[in-house]
Predict the 3D structure of the following.
Amino acid sequence: MTTGKLLTGKSLPRRTLLRGMGAAVALPFLDAMTPAMAATSKATGPVRMAFVYVPNGIDMRNWTPQEEGPLTAELPRILKPLEPFKQDITVLSNLTHNNGRALLDGAGDHGRCCGAYLTGVQPRKSYVDIKAGISCDQIVANQLASKTRFPSLEVGLEDARQAGDCDSGYSCAYTNNLAWRSETQPLPPVLDPRALFERLFGKGAELSPEARVREGKFRRSILDFVTGDTKKLQSTLGPTDQRKLDEYLSSIREIERQLERAEKDNAQINPGMPKPYGVPADFAEHFKLMTDMITVAFQSDMTRVLTFLVTREGTSRAYREIGIPDGHHPLTHHMNNPAMIEKVTQINTYHVQQFAGWMEKLKSIKEGDGNLLDNSMIVYGAGLSDGNRHTHEDLPTLIAGRGGNYIKSGRRIVYRRETPMSNMFMTMMDRMGVPVEHFGDATGPLPGLDLA
């Protein structure tokens, strides 16, 4: 471990690791990573870019704010959980994915809308010729690869093949993936919290559920292995950095506890089922566990690029925990049935509630003179607007965070109808320091998003 002291003019290397007994733990952004001579200008930390995708469209009547400009009125029902963070979000209206429509042969509306979401390119319908396009997250990841441990992270909460809800190879490829490294190579999301933890903090041998139970009796926290380095580092830090480090390490310890509880609960609730081992039975718990680990990955600068497929596109998942035993996808084909529309709205709101919890977590973590949310651009949205009619215009879209004092948030921007969604991605790539001349069906940067 290399350490630096604030008062000597030396700085702590940004990619310092706590090491011990084969384990390695990255550090959060600390004031000690800024040279003493720059103390009068606090570092804000790197900018992160993330995409949180929800399936089957959203009830736009309960999503869209009535006002344009500053968000001064109460947010509509689906966005209501974000009321405490109203000044941290930007709602964008009239963005469209024209290549999600059936312009060519396509791959079905659900396959097209998800496959085109971050690529701006219409996926091809073929069992042997699966093609989309390079997604914007991967364009950025390729350029920033040398700066972080992981160029990007891909996570999710459901796989169609596990749910028995996938009708063909090409359909699964498009509905199960947001990130595309090349036009023929999707990057599948990590679904199992234990697998994500091991990827971030150290991967052990592949074990069966029974072996994991035996191993668990002797399992130690990863933090136990880096105690020596931790104590050395703490002795060089000021009070503020000591507090940040303590909170950060405590969050890792809590994730470990959550994983252990999830594994035990699954063994009691659903023994023998072919689920990824360690996945919580409860959707909200699963969401929180994954986003807690994503937060640690952002905080420690393990990665700056993320895609999060909340559940796969076209999912028929039920939400019994909120009293909805019906499948999500069938409900969206409501044919204007009020009872079915109400259930869709409840599901949409439930998803936003989980997202709001993550925003609260990000905003609570100080970084420089702001917080982790301030230094992020997190897109939340769907590849369809009206799930009943499968419409691809005026897609439900918001950005949480300010992208490092770049985005003027706390407002709704209404663009000209049929403005390409790819324009937003082009703007975000530029903010990440990866400008491109062409992307998907973009016609140019998205105006009015920044503070200028």
Remarks:
- Residues 1-9, 36-43, 160-164, 266-276 have pLDDT under 50 and may be disordered.
- The longest helix spans residues 239-269.
- The longest strand covers residues 411-420.
- The two ends are 41 Å apart (CA to CA).
